[in-house]
Description:
By secondary structure, this protein is mainly beta. 0% of the residues lie in helices and 47% in strands.
Amino acid sequence: QVQLVExxxxxVRAGESMRLSCAASGRTFSNYVxxxxxxxxxxxxxxxxxxxxxxxxxxxxxxxxxxxxxxRTSAKSTVYLQMNSLKPEDTAVYYCAARRGDYSGxxxxxxxxxxxxxxxxxxxxSS
Length: 127
C-alpha cells in the first residue's frame, strides 16, 4: 500500500516563504516520478512541479517558475516544495503525487498521469 503524506501547510503573508514535505512509504520510490499539484476553490487541480526518479529532470508551471523549487532526498522517499515570494493566488490545497516505474524523465503534468496521491495540505497566503 503506497502512502503519501504531505505536511508543512498553513497561513503566511504575501512575500513570505513556506516549505511543503511529502513522505512516501509502502514501496521503493527510486524509480517514481514525484509531483506537486494544487487546487483552489472552484478550480481544477493544476500542475505545480515534478521531479524525475534521478532528480535530473525537473519541471515547473509557468506561474511558479523562479519562485518554487522541488527536490527529493537521495533515498527518494521524501519530496519537498520550497515556495518563496508567495502570492495570494498561490492559495490552494497542495497535493503530492507519484507516478510509478518511470525512467524516461518525461514531462508529466496531468493529474491522470499520476498513480498515487496524498490527502493534501492547505496553503493560505494573505495579502
